[in-house]
Amino acid sequence: MKTILIILLMLCGRADAQYNWTWIKTSPIDSTRLEFMQAQVLDDSIFIPIFGRYGYKVPKTVFQPSTWSTSHTHSYASLTGIPSTFTASVHSHPISEITNLQGSLDGKSATGHTHTIAEITNYAGYVMNISAANVATTTDAQTIYIGLAGNAPSTSDGSQRVYVPKSGTIKAVYVYANSGTAGTNEAWVLSIRKNSTTDTQIQSLASNSANRVWSNTGLSIAVVAGDYIEIKSVNPTWSNNPANVRFNASIYIE
Description:
disordered N terminus, Jelly Rolls, five-stranded antiparallel β-sheet, six-stranded antiparallel β-sheet, 2 domains, 254 residues, mainly beta
């Protein structure tokens, strides 16, 4: 029995050096607790029985988390139960915290602004097409108006109106005439007539071809939505009149 007590005291002495336990003798001690070597909680410490009424009184702070070491690390791979992805919670950032955002915004145009057509590069305009029904016979020195699709040319100004749907500038015009009988090559003048008031010559063409083309790509006629235009033809006095003439025109506006 004495040998066992010495061994226990040696062991407890090691514990005493590490944890500052105090060797005490208590009286009395619950026999049930002694039988199972159970610790007793005292006011400021815990009594751990070793032999009989002898044992160690351990400060409670030894068993409190505040005295445990918090300076330690773990590798991410050693952690279990970690999700593979994390859903970010709703949050916000000022512009200053987002890299290059302010500089990118500074290079943008403000909303609610406008540009003139002249300020837009590679602007694609639109084309207005004009055609007329067959003219079986042509009359010398006559002025006729071409415009209303499917209609024969008329001698009445303003009767063949084609309305401009969008404001812009007439830049180019091509007029093609196919004749069943070509006729002779007297100068034939075609013009654009705007709003029955203003004429701009397309071309004076002297040709005896059955396929005549009047063109002008150097025009600059300002138009607004609601203006109307016609092709005005001033017939020459032919030696041999063209016959069965069909007109088709393309007017480019941008």
